[in-house]
Amino acid sequence: MSSHAQISHTVNRRRVAAATIIGTTVEWYDFFIYANAVALVFTKQFFDPAGGSVGQLVAFASIGLSFLFRPLGAFLAGHYGDKIGRRAMLVATLLMMGIATALIGLLPTYAQIGVAAPILLLLLRVLQGISAGGEWGGAVLMAVEHADPKRRGLAGSFPQLGVPLGMLLASGVMALMSGVISPGAAFAEWGWRVPFLLSIVLVGVGYWVRRSVDESPVFQEIAETKQQTKLPIVQLLKRYWYLVLLGALVFAGNNAPGYMTTGGFITKYATKDLKLDQTDVLVAVAVGSAFWFIFTLLSGWLADKIGRVRTYQIGFVCSAIAVFLIFPIMSSGGVGMLYLALFLFSIGLGLTYGPQAALYSEMFPASVRFSGVSISYALGAILGGAFAPLIAQAILDQTKSTTGISVYLFVVVVVGFLAVSVIRDRQGINLSIKNEAEQAKGATIFEKSGARKGQDSQG
Predict the structure, then answer these.
(1) Which residues of 281-309 are buried (b: 16+ CB within 10 A; e: fewer)?
(2) pTM of the entire predicted model
(3) 422 lies in a domain?
(4) Residues forming a β-bridge with 444
(5) So what's the pLDDT on residue 412?
(6) N or C of the chain: less Cβ packing under 10 Å?
């Protein structure tokens, strides 16, 4: 490769990295401001007839509702992503998420239009779920399939960084509205709407950035050789269902603890149960997201140094310890202890999130890869995060203690640890469609390996 071509290749990889980070940040900002709003205002604004703790449970259930539609988004985006390309799906899902989020900011409340308000809110949340289910697979494949094979772990962590960045941005904007621009009654009246409407600007930026990157080289190769699978999802579920299941269980182990923060439960517990200041809690959650960002980036680097599976195992051990520490630490003092609890919690979350893109991409053959990573992710989100805040709230209401919540999270983390330990680390496998036969064998430790480490010249 000439020096000019090398420079062009490097510039394109940097552009892809920027596009995946910015795009997923916008996507998850949209998704997470809903969870913050549920914890702070939506119970009263949209679910008022249920009242009290029942209204809070219904509000948290609305978070989980969107997860039930993630597989639909994953099926649609996976099917078309394996047939017409990764980039087209990234743009489509971003626009869907942005439009749904902005419309939430314009919705009348229950006091204004009655039962139509929560119905419309839930319909828009469903659209958010479909978008989130389809977006992730395209983002990670753009990052991983463009990457230098020796740095796939780090490159794959870039779209993962959009999640803590999206949470940081969502919590930060909510804190600004709650504590500075529209404090007190003004926040409940109109201030909560501004973060949703801001999505219009952010989506415009994300759209422009994503349109500027080249299609994945693996998909370009698939299209040029006309090797698109006619029904990729059917092929996936027929031949690789067990990989989808393992991938889902791995993500569930990360997602259940993660949705204690991103799903709004910790925000609600700290403000309503521990009586901490609302703005202080939002700022603490934003800082916790910054810690999560750091450990996610670190884990991408570690995944290239010690392997994807080993990094995951270390992270799950950290999470198994943290789930028993977070609530006692939060309850032992003021906001300072909340910062400490969120810092400890973020270690395991980051270490079990950064390697996910590389691990998943190296599990599935090229022709069904978009479908494989997307559906594994969507099912894992249902098994892990979908109703984690609802389950945690129900346990708290029944037992008046957080111990049961910690036990529940510990069990899910252990399942994730066992699932990832069954997957073979295929760091360095050639991701090209030309290597499909090798990719189709040996993805678990119970199969004879068809891949030879370090042989990838693609990328």
Answers:
(1) bbbbbbbbbbbbbbbbbbbbbbbbebbbb
(2) 0.82
(3) yes
(4) 423
(5) 97
(6) N
* CA–CA gap between residue 390 and residue 64 (Å, rounded): 8
**366-406 residue pLDDT tens:** 888 888 998 898 899 889 877 888 899 899 999 999 999 99
Cβ-Cβ contacts under 8 Å for 151 (sequence gap 6 or more): 304
Per-state percent for the chain, helix, strand, coil, to nearest 5: 80, 0, 20
Q: Is residue 458 in a domain?
A: no
Please give the structure tokens belonging to residue 29. 């900002």
Find the CATH number of the domain harbouring 334: 1.20.1250.20
- Would 444 be classed as within a structural domain? no
| Sole residue written with tokens 């926040």 | 187
Predicted local distance difference test score (pLDDT) of residue 416: 97
Res 10 pLDDT > 70: no
**C-alpha 383, offset from chain centre:** 13
User: For residue range 113-159, what is the model confidence (pLDDT) as tens digits?
Assistant: 888 988 899 999 899 888 888 878 888 888 888 888 889 999 999 98
Q: What distance in Å separates the CA atoms of residue 428 and residue 307, rounded to the nearest whole number?
A: 10
**What residues form DSSP beta bridges with 259?**
none
CA distance 453 to 354: 21
Structural domain includes residue 269: yes
Domain total in the chain: 1
Q: Which domain holds residue 90?
A: 3-439
Q: How far apart are CA 98 and CA 135, in angstroms?
A: 12
Question: DSSP H helical segments within 105-212, as ranges?
Answer: 110-113, 116-146, 152-176, 185-186, 193-197, 199-211
Query: Please, are residues 184 and 278 in contact by the beta-carbon 8 Å criterion?
Result: no
